[in-house]
Structures are given as C-alpha cells and as structure tokens.
C-alpha cells in the first residue's frame, strides 16, 4: 500500500535561506494523544532561522545535534483531519492553532499536515483568519509567559532559577524594546490590557502602528537611545535581547526588573548594586494558555499584525525577508 504523501519544506544541511527545499515527504502518522492537522498557515519565528543555521548563536554545550533532512517550524493554524483514539477534546473539522512541541522537539510545521499533541492546541478564535491565528502562538505565549503567567516549572539552561513575572496594574511603568516585532507588539497590548503605562521602543517608522496598539509613548531609538533618554521604568521587556541587553539597567528603577527575551549577559554585580531583578525564561507550548490568549484575540483586545505572507513553496523568500529585519508584526507562510 502506498504511503500518503504531502508537500513540506525541508533542509538537508545547515545554512542560509537557500537550503530550504520544497519537497514531497511522507505524511505523519498519529501517536497517542495526537491530532492530525491539515495546515492552512504557518507562523515564522526566530528559532526557525536559528535551527536552519545550525543554532550557531548559542553556546556549543546548549546546541542540539540535528538529524537531516528536517522540517522547520512550530506555529500552525488549520483544521483537524483526524484524532487519535484517546483524544476527546477535539474532533475532525475543528479549527485549531498552536505552538507545537516547543522547545522539546521539532514540530515539522512547514508542511501540509502536522501531527500535534492535543495539549499544545487551542480552538482558533472565530473572528480571525488562519493567517493571523498562525502568527500568534509563539509570539503570544512568549509575551504571556514573560508578563502574565509563566505557566510551567522548567528552569531554563541560562539561569539558575525560575522566571517570575512582575505584577502589572494601573500605574506600572513598562518599557518594551523591539516593540514593533512579533513578541514586542503583543507585549505592548498585554501590558496595556493590565493597565500599565507603556513606552514602546522602535524606529520612528513604526510610531503610528504602535500608537494604534495603545502605546502611551514611542521612543525612536534612531534619534535617542533608551539608556540616554533618562526615563526609568518598573519593568523593561527587551524583546530583542542578546549581547547588549545589559544597557537597559539604566532604564530600570531600584526594585524593578529587566526581562531579556533572548538571553544575554548582564553584569550581576551591577544589577545587584542597582537593585534590578534580571530574569528570562524559555517559552513552552501550552494549549491552555493559548486558549486564554484566544479570548483576547477573539474580542480584538489583542491583535496580531502581519508583516508579510508567502506561499509555503516560497519559504526561502520568507526567510530572506526575515533576514532584512525591521519587521512590523509577523511573517506567515500560507498553504493552499
């Protein structure tokens, strides 16, 4: 009997966008606890290009060993095609979205069909389409787990303790760096939902976009760097993170917090002297948390911006767009 096939985008070795290949592969088989999703859209995220490049941006001791060929991706939206016998929460025909298997294993999401643990999925908000739903899971859950509720008890490899979100309420002052990007623009909206006063840091080209999302102030970093602005906040969420994240200690009040989304070195002695709590976490798949976010997406309290869309077969072009930077929202692949 011939195995059912599907189209997917694979890589056969690490490299640039040119290593992405649109090919025919075997359709996944269901395991207990899983559903088979006919994919309509796939959200792109930084881990996609980190994996494509061979995770060269993390210390070697944290770097996984990949077996090739492999299929990238983790964010999907689509319609359930089949369910394993032990799955009772979903049935064929349900529209769902989710961050799949992250960060424990590859989700094989750049494909026409994806086998997903039912616990990683939530029902797609009825008021948004699959493109916007596919853009939401990783960015939305990252913002949620940093700002609202961690929702898991896994200590990340880059710090010794669990992350603890800072309670947000009316009067809390929050600065969000990289505010126009995937995580940043959702974080702006979640902080405003909780009543915080939000300063969004981005290039001036994004000012109108961020004001529409509710940002109280927009700082154009091409004119004034945040650390030179003289402004201080109860919380700085650095959605860019990395090697320069420590500079934002200058923007945190004593007793406040600095949260780098992408881990970067921060001088612990300086942080202690300034009374700044520095913490990060690793986003993890959660259908339950995504269902909470789905309610906000459904009512329009939080909306997901789309930078651009590309057909699945043009994943290389999508990765080239990502490499250009200065995104306004998310890049999404569509599946016919």
Summarize the structure.
21% of the residues lie in helices and 27% in strands.
Overall number of structural domains: 2
Instruction: Give the uncertain stretches in residue-range form.
Output: none
Using DSSP, what is the number of strands?
16
Give a quick account of the main beta sheet: strands, pairing sense, barrel closure: 7 strands, mixed
Number of helices: 8
CATH topology heading of the largest domain: Quinone Oxidoreductase, Chain A, domain 1
Mean pLDDT: 96
Assign the structural class, choosing from mainly alpha, mainly beta, alpha/beta, alpha+beta, or little secondary structure: alpha/beta
CATH architecture of the largest domain: Alpha-Beta Complex
CATH class (first level) name of the largest domain = Alpha Beta
Helix content: 10-25%
The geometry reads as globular
Percent of residues in β-strands: 25-35%
CATH homologous superfamily placement of the largest domain: Medium-chain alcohol dehydrogenases, catalytic domain
The SSE order reads EEEHEEEEEHHEHEHEEEHEHEHE
Report how far apart the termini are: 26 Å
């Amino acid at each position: 009997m011939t195995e059912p096939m599907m189209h997917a985008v694979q890589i056969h070795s690490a490299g640039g966008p040119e290593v992405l290949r649109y090919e025919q592969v075997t359709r996944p088989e269901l395991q207990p606890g899983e559903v088979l999703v006919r994919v309509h859209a796939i959200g792109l995220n930084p881990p996609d290009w980190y994996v494509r490049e061979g995770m060269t941006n993390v210390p070697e001791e944290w770097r996984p060993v990949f077996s090739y060929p492999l299929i990238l991706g983790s964010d999907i939206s689509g319609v359930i095609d089949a369910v394993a016998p032990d799955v009772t929460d979903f049935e064929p025909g349900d529209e769902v979205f989710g961050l799949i298997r992250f960060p424990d294993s590859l989700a094989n999401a750049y494909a026409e069909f994806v086998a997903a643990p039912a616990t990683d999925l939530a029902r797609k908000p009825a008021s948004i389409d699959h493109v916007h739903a596919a853009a939401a899971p990783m960015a939305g859950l990252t913002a949620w787990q940093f700002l609202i509720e961690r929702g898991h008890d896994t200590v990340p490899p880059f710090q010794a303790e669990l992350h603890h979100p800072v309670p947000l309420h009316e009067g809390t002052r929050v600065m969000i760096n990289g505010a126009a990007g995937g995580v940043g623009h959702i974080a702006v909206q979640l902080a405003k939902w909780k009543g915080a006063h939000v300063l969004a840091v981005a290039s001036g080209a994004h000012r109108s976009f961020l004001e529409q999302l509710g940002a109280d102030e927009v700082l154009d970093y091409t004119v004034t760097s945040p650390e030179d602005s003289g402004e201080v906040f109860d919380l700085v969420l650095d959605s860019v993170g990395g090697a320069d994240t420590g500079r934002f200690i200058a923007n945190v009040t004593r007793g406040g917090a600095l949260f780098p989304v992408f881990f970067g070195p921060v001088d612990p002695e300086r942080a202690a002297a300034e009374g700044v709590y520095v913490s990060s976490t690793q986003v993890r798949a959660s259908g339950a948390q995504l269902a909470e976010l789905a309610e906000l997406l459904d009512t329009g309290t939080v909306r997901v911006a789309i930078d651009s869309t590309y057909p699945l077969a043009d994943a290389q072009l999508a990765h080239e767009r990502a490499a250009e930077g200065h995104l306004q929202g998310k890049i999404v692949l569509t599946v016919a």
